[in-house]
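Note to self: keep these together.
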Amino acid sequence: MLPTVTLISWLLTASIGAYMLSRWIGDGGVRAQRANREALSPFVVLGHASLALTGLALWTAYTITRWGPLAWSAVLVLMPAIGLGLSTVTLLTPYPTPGGAGRPGGGPLAAPAEDVLASRLTDSTLTHALTDAALASRLVEEVLASAAAEPARRPRSKGHAAALIPASHGLLALTTFLLAVLSAVTAL
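Structure:
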């Protein structure tokens, strides 16, 4: 019974992972990661997926045969898969940067365009510009030009709910690992 429950948990985890991987590839993740030398290597993401699927194949074989060494092999393969998964989440999660600007490409933690614009306007610049009509005119033109150059903000349809996908994948992965270890221990 426990090996079957573990297999179901593993299949659910793999299905969410496959969805995230297909979205990452479809959104140009491999190309973007290769273009940025300091970014996460695509081999980390693909290695995570490969190890997880190898472990799933081993666990499926264990569920069918109930041969203990297959269970322990699946658990051993799952450990580096989890490590690569944690690396992937840590390195691909957007983060705020000093100065109010978010990571290039946006993301849920990227700063709104108004914040970026406001960070360029200091009190001294405004005070100086308001005392000189020519400077005030130039400042208004620059502000309008930079606001027009900013891409239009898309309405937030998903909000922070998109974070539930990787969070549920991680929670299911943890559950799967614990169930696999329990099953492997009882297989002895």
